[in-house]
């Protein structure tokens, strides 16, 4: 028999496992539910009429690819193909395609199934009689009238402005292009304007034009509104942060040079940018500065002092002096100890002394390389206390 403590421990373990499993089941259940809801939303999504018809044609084309290498399931395929026509154009293959039609769509599956019902007779007509024509054109444009040919729009599939070679001057798109929707108006690309997108928009200038092409390029960054040519010389007016110069056009204003210390705060320094400026905080060692780093301070902040034109941390400087003193004391101690211990043997003393010298030289070289960018070096004279 287990004692009461062991029984309690076992029960606790089972409860813990059960609770953990219950939590995991809830998480899995929630994920399954979320995926199901997401799938149902995707299935019920309603697409524009032309897009829905394109989705149906795309699904049908995938079905044709899927069944391209199939054949009749009977024992004598050759006889079946001879008597029942080729599998390629058979009703059997059509049924196999239709069985999975629309199920591969990410969105609009329900709408696609409904569209199949409306298009069934046209699909069969195309399958048995008109496979030499494009399915999309036959089904979506000619039969169901859900789409228009390219560069046509609206219920009557009228041609877009500039059709066929210069639709919207080739600088925009026709609203409703390829669908039974839209009004055919030109939606111009960036930099173009006008009913035919044949003019340059504000902030652009005409870089090239002939009977067929209009090319608009962006004005210089310093220009306010329109311009006549590339660069700052072409500006008709300047943006804030620039001034008009008779020879060079719009020139940057150096805000940092307007006042003695620029437009920034007392413990900041100014950096001039194109058309503007930035205020950056001085190094913490500074009390006022004209640039980044402790070597650009006007004066030093509390706890720092000026050393070789750089503000240095007093506490760190003091610690460094103690380290230097201790280091040279060790070197001196090694030298004295070598002389005392090996005073009776000049050769051994020379060898040990040489080793100590090499050790000192290597140590100093390593320290010099490590600290070459760490700040001002302590003068040799400061090693003494």
Automatic annotation (TrEMBL):
GO cellular component: membrane
Keyword tags: Calcium, Disulfide bond, EGF-like domain, Isomerase, Membrane, Redox-active center, Repeat, Signal, Transmembrane, Transmembrane helix
Main localization, broad class: membrane
Topology versus the membrane: Multi-pass membrane protein
SUPFAM superfamilies (alphabetical): Growth factor receptor domain (SSF57184)
Annotated family: Belongs to the CRELD family.
Protein name, entry field: protein disulfide-isomerase
């Amino acid at each position: 028999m287990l004692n009461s403590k062991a029984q309690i421990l076992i029960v606790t373990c089972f409860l813990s496992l059960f609770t953990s499993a219950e939590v995991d089941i809830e998480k899995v259940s929630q994920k399954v539910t979320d995926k199901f809801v997401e799938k149902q939303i995707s299935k019920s999504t309603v697409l524009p009429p032309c897009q829905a018809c394109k989705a149906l044609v795309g699904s049908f084309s995938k079905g044709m690819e899927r069944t391209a290498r199939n054949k009749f399931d009977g024992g004598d395929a050759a006889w079946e193909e001879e008597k029942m026509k080729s599998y390629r154009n058979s009703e059997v293959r059509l049924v196999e395609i239709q069985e999975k039609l629309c199920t591969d769509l990410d969105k609009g599956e329900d709408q696609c199934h409904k569209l199949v019902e409306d298009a069934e007779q046209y699909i069969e007509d195309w399958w048995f009689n008109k496979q030499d024509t494009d399915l999309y054109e036959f089904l979506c444009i000619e039969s169901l009238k859900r789409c228009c040919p390219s560069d046509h729009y609206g219920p009557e599939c009228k041609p877009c402005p500039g059709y066929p070679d210069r639709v919207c001057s080739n600088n925009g798109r026709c609203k409703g292009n390829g669908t039974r929707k839209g009004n055919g108006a030109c939606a111009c690309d960036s930099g173009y304007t006008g009913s035919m997108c044949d003019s340059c928009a504000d902030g652009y200038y005409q870089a090239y034009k002939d009977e067929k092409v209009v090319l608009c390029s962006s004005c210089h960054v310093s220009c306010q509104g329109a311009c006549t040519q590339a660069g700052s010389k072409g500006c008709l007016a300047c943006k804030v942060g620039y001034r008009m110069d008779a020879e060079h056009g719009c020139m940057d204003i150096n805000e940092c040079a307007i006042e003695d210390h620029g437009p920034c705060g007392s413990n900041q320094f100014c950096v001039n940018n194109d058309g503007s400026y930035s205020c950056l905080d001085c190094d913490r060692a500074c009390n006022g500065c004209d640039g980044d780093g402790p070597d650009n301070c006007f004066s030093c902040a509390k706890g720092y002092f000026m050393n070789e034109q750089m503000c240095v941390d007093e506490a760190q400087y003091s610690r460094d002096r103690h380290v230097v003193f201790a280091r040279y004391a060790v070197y001196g101690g090694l030298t004295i100890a070598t002389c005392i211990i090996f005073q009776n043997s000049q050769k051994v003393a020379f060898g040990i002394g040489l080793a100590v010298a090499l050790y000192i030289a290597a140590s100093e070289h390593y320290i010099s390389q490590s600290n070459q960018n760490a700040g001002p070096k302590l003068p040799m004279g400061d090693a003494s206390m």
